[in-house]
Each structure stands twice: as structure tokens, then as C-alpha cells.
Amino acid sequence: MREGPGADETGVSVREQCDCVFVWHQPNGTAPRWELPDLFHKFGQFDTDAAAYYRPYPECSRRAESEPVHPQIVAEKGPDSAHFRYVHGASVTPVCLNREAADEEWRFYVPPERGREQVENQFLRTVWEDLDIWRDQEYVEHPALSKVDAKPYMAMRKWATQFYEVPA
After folding, report:
1. Which neighbouring-strand residues pair with 13?
2. Which of 103, 107, 114, 123 has its CA 20 to 30 A from that of 46?
3. Which tens digits make up the pLDDT trace of 65-87?
4. H helices then E strands: how many in the chain?
5. 20: helix, coil or strand?
């Protein structure tokens, strides 16, 4: 393995950023199709001081080590607004105001301040609650969704298909 955008003969590329190790693996051995974004400068609305965040290791990685969770399942949590109430007991259910696909990024917007503050304060707890579900979750091609979630959820799934070069 080597560091940087290129992949070795196994299709693996490794890069370190913000004390995290990111690994690109492509079954057919091709190099990454885009550069890893600078996570602290990607989102202008957040503080860009790395010292203001939880350290990713060891605090946030020990318990999540070797979890059998596909990254798309984690991403699908965003447009699934109903789960915030029923899984996390949230008093506010975020609603997707807008969404957009920009190359390798999927963005969705919710009314920010109160919801964002609550998510930031409870983030680590919600990850463990979600993991309790994700460990046994099976992929459902056409999931039962609320009317407000169906359109952004399925649009995200359609967008994500561009990243799969092997059969599902």
C-alpha cells in the first residue's frame, strides 16, 4: 500500500488526514477517481480547528471496530427523517429542505440550528443506537418510507449506484 491518490496492484490506496486513516479499495485495482476532500475546510459553517473535535482514535474507534456495516447504510440515515424520532427519541424530526448531487458528494439540507446542535450534542450516542440496528440490517430494494422521505432517500440510492462497478 502507498499513500496518495494512486492505488497499488491490489487496488488499495491509503491516505492519512486529521489523525484518521482513509483507505480506498477498488476490486478491479483502479486508482481513486477523486481526491479526498480536506474534511476541516470542506464545511465552512463549522469550526476548522482540529482541536475542537473528538479525537477519532482511540475514543471513537474501539467500540466501532470490525462492525459489519456498509458505508451506504450509514449515509442512508440522513434522508430517513422518521428514524430520528423512533430510534433516537428526538423531539424534533428533521425534514430535508433541499438535496443535491455534486459529483462524488451527496448533500441534503435541513433547518440547521436547533437540529444541528442536538445532533452534535448527541452524535456519539446516536451512532451506537444506529449500530444496534445496522448490525442485523438487510438491504431492502424498495423500503417502506414515509412520503416526506421517499423522494430524497431513493434519489440518494440512485446517485450512489455510480460508485458500484460490481454487481450488488
Report:
1. 24
2. 103
3. 778 888 888 888 877 877 888 88
4. 4, 4
5. strand
> Cell triple for residue 84?
430520528
**CA end-to-end span of the chain:** 26
How far apart CA 154 and CA 156 sit, in angstroms, is 5
Q: What is the reported pTM?
A: 0.65
User: What length does the chain have?
Assistant: 168
Q: Which residues contact 7 (CB under 8 A, 6 or more apart)?
A: 13, 24, 26, 29, 30, 31, 32
Residue pLDDT, tens place only, 21-78: 888 877 777 888 888 887 777 766 666 676 766 666 666 566 667 788 888 888 888 7
- Selection from 102, 103, 123 nearest residue 46 by Cα: 123
> Cell 462524488 sits at which residue?
104
Question: Which amino acid is residue 21, in one-letter code?
Answer: V
